[in-house]
Amino acid sequence: MTTLASGTDTLTRDALTVLQPGFPGTTAPDWLLRRLGEGLASVGLFGRNIASPEQLASLTAQLRSERDDVLVAIDEEGGDVTRLEARTGSSFPGNHALGAVDDVNLTREVAHELGRRLAECGVNLNWAPSADVNSNPSNPVIGVRSFGADPELVARHTAAYVTGLQSAGVAACTKHFPGHGDTAVDSHHALPRIDAERSVLEERELLPFRAAIAAGTRAVMSAHILVPTLDPDHPATLSLRVLTDLLRGRLDYDGLIVTDGMEMQAIAATYGIERGSVLAIAAGADAICVGGGLADDETVRRLRDALVGAVRSGELPEERLAEAAERVRGLARWATSAPASARGSEEAPAPAADVTRVDIGLVAARRALTVTGADGFTPLTEAPYVALLTPVANIAVGDGTPWGVGAELARLLPGTETGSFAGEAAGDAVLETAGARRTVVVVRDEHRHPWMAATLDTVLAARPDTVVVEMGVPQAPPRGALHIATHGAARVCGHAAAEVIAGA
Fold first, then answer.
1. Which residues are catalytic?
2. Three-state DSSP state, 173
3. Residue 116, CA atoms < 13 Å, CB-side half-sphere
4. Which of 114, 283, 290, 312 is the most exposed place for a label (fewest CB within 10 A)?
5. Which range has the worst mean pLDDT, 99-103, 150-154, 179-183, 346-350?
6. Contact at 8 Å (CB) between 328 and 287?
């Protein structure tokens, strides 16, 4: 590839400044450190970069030894989408569980504690919270990442989350603007489309973002979705009408605009990452998120050169790129300020008297449970067999993070065994494998998976004493001798459910 930039001039530095790339491994590669010296101002962390809090703190210190004001971003929503605890499952329930409790003070406390742990590890920008209203039950990528289907509820908890997170000195990045909830397509795989009237968008999708802006969110992440009533030709990430006219103009937002991952197929397969990045900056975005899949120096070089080339050809105004770079630097200044000045009027929430920092996640997970059939249920005293009905994981969640109730039940009822099942023959397989043992069946979004519902039909017909745990969005009617809806699949949600099953 022809390199258009030397790495020292202002234009090149601005082009590097607006990139938020990822990288492999648990230490920073030499190429990344070199790019930080040349002007790169942000990096993105994923599960592959994190082995422990101590290692993460060492990694962020390594980055800051090269550039002390670097923005270190992470996709840490808590709940199902965790990078900090990708190997174990999260200590915090996700948005849907917090929405089910509907206590904004609790949401603020959870977000503050999550932010405190991130800040301790040197992370200062969190690509969270999701402000999407999960109005489409068939949504394959949002689901429990949303506070719920009621716009007012989502709005108040989004604001509380932003306040709590930023009170810990970690910038919130509210996503996915203008709202990814009413989609039936995952933008990791293709370009979703929302055919809602403008009035519906105003009352539903935009309400939580208005609340986040009022709460002072430092960043907003764009969605790779087509909303024809806003712009019939361009997905939101590449739309001047959406990012500049709507978000900047009508919603009066002046913070950082970050794109969702540019290697996602909604952009990469339609525009390509270089062309997409140029169009995104031209449309009003300030930072290009890339690195979930493409995590190497070649990607950084390609995007840098695409931006520099677009300025030199006249396609991208140099002042637009400079403005974007300055917004990145402005957020970096906020993030590296002294805590009091960084937080401004955002005050840390005071925990309830009986809640310690250590257990706020478990307290929230317990409160989020919806239990049906408890009156006639006798807690288990012998080790059961846990059948995990495992759907294909969406890319945002990933398939490497453990979930379910098996590990937590094994702690309370030693000898508990767990097996994973999928497909049309799963019901018979569960019955055969469980044998005479009491069975606990764990599902995730039963309403979206016909094979999962059929499996429950088969198991419950033969074993009506089966306990059912729903760890997704509880849209299907509750059934089983005991039905527990956890509103998320975080480790702490499994812990709370196991306590009910074992009467702990």
1. 188, 260
2. strand
3. 14
4. 312
5. 346-350
6. yes
